[in-house]
Hints:
47% of the residues lie in helices and 16% in strands. The protein is an alpha+beta fold and 251 residues long. The chain folds into 2 domains: 2-93; 101-240, TATA-Binding Protein (2-Layer Sandwich). Strands 1, 2, 3, 4, 5 and 6 form a 6-stranded antiparallel β-sheet that branches.
Amino acid sequence: MILAWLAFFDGSLAVALALAGMVVAHYDFAAPIVGFTVFAAGLAFGLVGVLIGLIATLLTALSAKRRAGLARSVVGLLLSAFVVVPPAVIVLGHPYPPINDITTDTSNPPEFTHAQELAENQGRDMTYPKAFAAIQESAPAYQKLGPEKLDEPPDEVFKKANILAGEVQDWRITYVDPKTRSIEGVATSMLFHFKDDFVIQIRPAPGGGSLVEMRSKSRVGKGDLGTNYNRIMSFMQLMKGSPRGAAPNQQ
């Protein structure tokens, strides 16, 4: 049956493209966007494969003349579902709005002073989008996000932040300014190796102590599936603890 073969073909191609996209991006055989595009093509074939697989499975199961194609139909359906279902669960189940620049202070966000000098950021607007402030403030997923208050003086907290930021896996520190107590860097995502820019700033807290402010900005895409938020929250947790130790990468 032709539909059974089509289901099997689409499912096989979906798996091949999805795996190829992840491999070429993760191992830097191609740019992250290239790998993600190949992966997205696999998702497209997977969606078609699920539709054709469902139809083919139903027809072959109900017809004795077509029963020989049932196994191919089921395998094709399962292969397509293997590619489509996990991303669908992630995308449909996450609570984050479609913004990709997150900050602990929407009224006075930390600004990048060095990131725009990087070759990859030439021509990019690195200012915090004003429209994002209202979206972030109204999103339930970000209600716990804010500056971290520490009792130590700003200079001491800055030294601690500089140590911790330098130890985080897949972070590369690109700029440190003791005068403004600012740290800038680039974070690399775990799977596709996308690059995100971040800035950490230590400010004096009203009444004494320090405020740890942070902003994390994706270079591509409209949304981030919570990557920037989790990166900030992870670092804030580190700042509450010891100035030494392994830092988790929440990507």
